[in-house]
Amino acid sequence: MRDYLGSRCMFGIPTPSVNTCVQPECDDMRPDGVTNHIARMHVPDLAVRSDEDFERGIDALFGALDNAVDQVMTCGPDHLILGISALAIWGGSRAKSDALKARIAQRANASDRNIGVTLASDAVLEALAAHGVKRRIAIVEPYYPVIQKHLEAFFGEAGFDVVKFNHLQGKQFTGYTKVDARYLIDALRDTDTPDAEAIVQFGANLPMASLADEAERWLGKPVIAVNIANYWHALRHNGIDDRVRGWSKLMSQF
Protein backbone atom coordinates (compact mmCIF):
# COMPACT_ATOMS: atom_id res chain seq x y z
CA MET A 1 0.00 0.00 0.00
CA ARG A 2 1.00 3.60 -0.59
CA ASP A 3 1.49 6.15 2.17
CA TYR A 4 -1.93 7.61 3.02
CA LEU A 5 -0.93 11.29 2.62
CA GLY A 6 1.80 10.74 0.02
CA SER A 7 -0.28 8.44 -2.14
CA ARG A 8 1.16 9.85 -5.38
CA CYS A 9 4.74 10.63 -4.36
CA MET A 10 6.91 11.31 -1.32
CA PHE A 11 9.82 13.71 -1.80
CA GLY A 12 12.87 13.67 0.47
CA ILE A 13 14.51 17.09 0.52
CA PRO A 14 17.96 17.57 2.09
CA THR A 15 18.47 21.30 2.64
CA PRO A 16 20.81 23.40 4.80
CA SER A 17 19.86 23.81 8.45
CA VAL A 18 19.96 27.60 7.92
CA ASN A 19 17.48 27.47 5.03
CA THR A 20 14.00 28.77 5.88
CA CYS A 21 12.78 29.00 2.28
CA VAL A 22 12.84 25.57 0.65
CA GLN A 23 10.38 23.89 2.99
CA PRO A 24 7.58 26.52 2.89
CA GLU A 25 7.93 27.14 -0.85
CA CYS A 26 7.78 23.43 -1.64
CA ASP A 27 4.82 22.96 0.69
CA ASP A 28 2.99 25.82 -1.02
CA MET A 29 3.49 24.14 -4.43
CA ARG A 30 2.57 20.66 -3.22
CA PRO A 31 -0.29 18.98 -5.14
CA ASP A 32 -2.74 16.69 -3.36
CA GLY A 33 -1.23 13.29 -2.72
CA VAL A 34 2.36 14.56 -2.71
CA THR A 35 4.29 15.07 0.54
CA ASN A 36 7.60 16.75 1.33
CA HIS A 37 10.02 15.42 3.95
CA ILE A 38 12.87 17.69 4.99
CA ALA A 39 16.30 16.68 6.27
CA ARG A 40 18.74 19.27 7.56
CA MET A 41 22.37 19.60 6.44
CA HIS A 42 23.88 21.07 9.59
CA VAL A 43 25.91 24.22 9.01
CA PRO A 44 26.50 27.17 11.36
CA ASP A 45 24.77 30.46 10.55
CA LEU A 46 27.98 31.87 9.20
CA ALA A 47 28.63 35.54 8.69
CA VAL A 48 29.67 36.03 5.07
CA ARG A 49 31.83 39.03 4.25
CA SER A 50 34.03 37.68 1.47
CA ASP A 51 34.43 35.04 -1.20
CA GLU A 52 36.55 33.03 1.25
CA ASP A 53 33.77 33.06 3.87
CA PHE A 54 31.31 31.79 1.28
CA GLU A 55 33.65 29.01 0.16
CA ARG A 56 34.02 27.87 3.78
CA GLY A 57 30.26 27.60 3.98
CA ILE A 58 30.13 25.52 0.81
CA ASP A 59 32.77 23.17 2.21
CA ALA A 60 30.69 22.74 5.38
CA LEU A 61 27.59 21.93 3.35
CA PHE A 62 29.35 19.31 1.23
CA GLY A 63 30.51 17.75 4.50
CA ALA A 64 26.96 17.69 5.92
CA LEU A 65 25.23 16.22 2.89
CA ASP A 66 25.64 12.49 3.53
CA ASN A 67 24.14 12.61 7.02
CA ALA A 68 21.11 14.49 5.73
CA VAL A 69 20.56 11.91 2.99
CA ASP A 70 20.83 9.12 5.57
CA GLN A 71 18.30 10.90 7.77
CA VAL A 72 15.65 11.47 5.12
CA MET A 73 15.94 8.02 3.62
CA THR A 74 14.58 6.49 6.83
CA CYS A 75 11.06 7.66 5.87
CA GLY A 76 11.22 5.88 2.50
CA PRO A 77 10.84 8.71 -0.04
CA ASP A 78 10.27 8.01 -3.74
CA HIS A 79 12.50 10.81 -5.01
CA LEU A 80 15.15 13.16 -3.62
CA ILE A 81 15.42 16.90 -4.28
CA LEU A 82 18.64 18.62 -3.26
CA GLY A 83 17.43 21.81 -1.60
CA ILE A 84 20.51 23.91 -2.27
CA SER A 85 21.49 25.10 -5.73
CA ALA A 86 25.12 26.20 -5.24
CA LEU A 87 26.37 22.64 -4.65
CA ALA A 88 24.74 21.48 -7.89
CA ILE A 89 26.95 23.68 -10.09
CA TRP A 90 30.05 23.87 -7.87
CA GLY A 91 33.01 22.90 -10.00
CA GLY A 92 31.43 24.38 -13.13
CA SER A 93 30.80 21.30 -15.24
CA ARG A 94 28.22 18.67 -16.04
CA ALA A 95 30.73 16.04 -14.90
CA LYS A 96 30.93 17.60 -11.42
CA SER A 97 27.15 17.89 -11.22
CA ASP A 98 26.69 14.29 -12.32
CA ALA A 99 29.27 13.15 -9.77
CA LEU A 100 27.31 14.89 -7.01
CA LYS A 101 24.09 13.28 -8.17
CA ALA A 102 25.81 9.88 -8.23
CA ARG A 103 27.12 10.47 -4.70
CA ILE A 104 23.62 11.22 -3.43
CA ALA A 105 22.12 8.27 -5.30
CA GLN A 106 24.77 5.89 -3.98
CA ARG A 107 24.26 7.12 -0.43
CA ALA A 108 20.51 6.57 -0.79
CA ASN A 109 20.89 3.15 -2.46
CA ALA A 110 18.81 4.72 -5.19
CA SER A 111 19.42 2.02 -7.78
CA ASP A 112 18.07 -0.63 -5.42
CA ARG A 113 15.01 1.44 -4.54
CA ASN A 114 14.35 3.04 -7.97
CA ILE A 115 14.73 6.54 -6.55
CA GLY A 116 15.46 9.56 -8.74
CA VAL A 117 17.49 12.61 -7.72
CA THR A 118 16.74 16.22 -8.70
CA LEU A 119 19.54 18.79 -8.72
CA ALA A 120 19.17 22.45 -9.71
CA SER A 121 21.70 21.87 -12.49
CA ASP A 122 19.36 19.47 -14.30
CA ALA A 123 16.15 21.27 -13.33
CA VAL A 124 17.17 24.71 -14.58
CA LEU A 125 18.51 23.38 -17.89
CA GLU A 126 15.26 21.46 -18.46
CA ALA A 127 13.26 24.57 -17.54
CA LEU A 128 15.20 26.67 -20.05
CA ALA A 129 14.59 24.03 -22.73
CA ALA A 130 10.86 23.95 -21.92
CA HIS A 131 10.70 27.72 -22.46
CA GLY A 132 12.69 27.49 -25.69
CA VAL A 133 15.49 29.69 -24.36
CA LYS A 134 18.37 29.26 -26.76
CA ARG A 135 21.44 31.10 -25.52
CA ARG A 136 21.40 34.28 -23.41
CA ILE A 137 20.42 34.35 -19.74
CA ALA A 138 20.87 36.65 -16.75
CA ILE A 139 21.36 35.28 -13.24
CA VAL A 140 20.49 36.68 -9.82
CA GLU A 141 21.56 34.96 -6.60
CA PRO A 142 22.25 35.90 -2.96
CA TYR A 143 25.87 34.80 -3.12
CA TYR A 144 29.31 36.37 -3.41
CA PRO A 145 31.15 36.82 -6.74
CA VAL A 146 33.12 33.60 -6.27
CA ILE A 147 30.03 31.73 -7.52
CA GLN A 148 30.29 33.43 -10.92
CA LYS A 149 33.09 31.29 -12.35
CA HIS A 150 31.16 28.13 -11.46
CA LEU A 151 27.91 29.37 -12.99
CA GLU A 152 29.61 30.72 -16.12
CA ALA A 153 31.48 27.47 -16.69
CA PHE A 154 28.46 25.24 -16.06
CA PHE A 155 26.04 27.17 -18.26
CA GLY A 156 28.74 27.84 -20.84
CA GLU A 157 29.33 24.12 -21.23
CA ALA A 158 25.57 23.76 -21.79
CA GLY A 159 25.67 26.39 -24.55
CA PHE A 160 24.44 29.45 -22.67
CA ASP A 161 25.97 32.90 -22.35
CA VAL A 162 25.37 34.60 -19.01
CA VAL A 163 25.02 38.21 -20.14
CA LYS A 164 24.53 39.65 -16.64
CA PHE A 165 25.08 38.62 -13.02
CA ASN A 166 23.53 40.17 -9.95
CA HIS A 167 25.40 39.04 -6.83
CA LEU A 168 23.28 40.19 -3.89
CA GLN A 169 26.03 39.30 -1.39
CA GLY A 170 23.92 38.32 1.61
CA LYS A 171 25.87 38.92 4.81
CA GLN A 172 24.50 35.97 6.79
CA PHE A 173 23.24 32.57 5.68
CA THR A 174 19.93 33.16 7.44
CA GLY A 175 19.82 36.70 6.10
CA TYR A 176 18.89 35.68 2.57
CA THR A 177 15.22 35.45 3.57
CA LYS A 178 15.18 38.53 5.81
CA VAL A 179 14.10 40.79 2.96
CA ASP A 180 10.89 42.42 1.76
CA ALA A 181 9.07 42.22 -1.55
CA ARG A 182 10.51 45.55 -2.72
CA TYR A 183 14.04 44.20 -2.33
CA LEU A 184 13.21 41.13 -4.41
CA ILE A 185 11.39 43.12 -7.10
CA ASP A 186 14.31 45.54 -7.38
CA ALA A 187 16.73 42.61 -7.60
CA LEU A 188 14.83 41.15 -10.55
CA ARG A 189 14.58 44.51 -12.30
CA ASP A 190 18.29 45.16 -11.74
CA THR A 191 19.11 41.75 -13.22
CA ASP A 192 17.04 42.20 -16.35
CA THR A 193 18.65 43.34 -19.57
CA PRO A 194 17.31 43.40 -23.14
CA ASP A 195 20.02 40.90 -24.10
CA ALA A 196 18.67 38.21 -21.76
CA GLU A 197 16.05 35.77 -23.03
CA ALA A 198 15.32 34.64 -19.45
CA ILE A 199 16.24 35.42 -15.87
CA VAL A 200 17.44 32.55 -13.71
CA GLN A 201 17.31 32.89 -9.92
CA PHE A 202 19.78 30.69 -8.10
CA GLY A 203 20.01 30.38 -4.34
CA ALA A 204 17.37 28.15 -2.76
CA ASN A 205 17.17 30.39 0.33
CA LEU A 206 16.18 33.47 -1.69
CA PRO A 207 12.34 33.60 -1.58
CA MET A 208 11.55 34.35 -5.22
CA ALA A 209 9.05 31.59 -5.98
CA SER A 210 5.93 33.57 -5.10
CA LEU A 211 7.09 36.53 -7.24
CA ALA A 212 8.20 34.66 -10.35
CA ASP A 213 4.73 34.41 -11.92
CA GLU A 214 4.05 38.13 -11.59
CA ALA A 215 7.60 39.03 -12.63
CA GLU A 216 7.17 37.18 -15.92
CA ARG A 217 4.36 39.59 -16.74
CA TRP A 218 6.37 42.70 -15.78
CA LEU A 219 9.44 41.64 -17.68
CA GLY A 220 7.88 39.80 -20.61
CA LYS A 221 10.24 36.81 -20.35
CA PRO A 222 10.68 33.61 -18.34
CA VAL A 223 11.74 34.00 -14.72
CA ILE A 224 13.04 30.65 -13.53
CA ALA A 225 13.07 30.53 -9.73
CA VAL A 226 15.21 27.64 -8.62
CA ASN A 227 12.80 26.15 -6.07
CA ILE A 228 10.02 26.13 -8.67
CA ALA A 229 12.35 24.52 -11.22
CA ASN A 230 13.42 21.83 -8.76
CA TYR A 231 9.88 21.00 -7.68
CA TRP A 232 8.59 21.02 -11.27
CA HIS A 233 11.43 18.72 -12.34
CA ALA A 234 10.70 16.26 -9.52
CA LEU A 235 6.96 16.24 -10.22
CA ARG A 236 7.31 15.73 -13.96
CA HIS A 237 9.96 13.02 -13.59
CA ASN A 238 7.53 11.14 -11.37
CA GLY A 239 4.66 11.34 -13.85
CA ILE A 240 2.78 14.09 -11.96
CA ASP A 241 1.57 16.43 -14.66
CA ASP A 242 -0.67 18.78 -12.65
CA ARG A 243 -0.79 22.30 -14.07
CA VAL A 244 -0.76 24.75 -11.18
CA ARG A 245 -1.31 28.48 -11.62
CA GLY A 246 0.55 31.11 -9.62
CA TRP A 247 3.98 29.50 -9.74
CA SER A 248 5.18 30.82 -13.11
CA LYS A 249 4.57 29.42 -16.55
CA LEU A 250 6.84 26.51 -15.76
CA MET A 251 4.22 25.00 -13.42
CA SER A 252 1.12 26.20 -15.27
CA GLN A 253 2.06 25.37 -18.86
CA PHE A 254 4.83 22.75 -19.01
UniProtKB/TrEMBL annotation:
InterPro entries: Iso_Racemase_Enz_sf, MaiA/AMDase
PANTHER family given in the database record: BLR3294 PROTEIN
Name by which UniProt lists this protein: Asp/Glu/hydantoin racemase
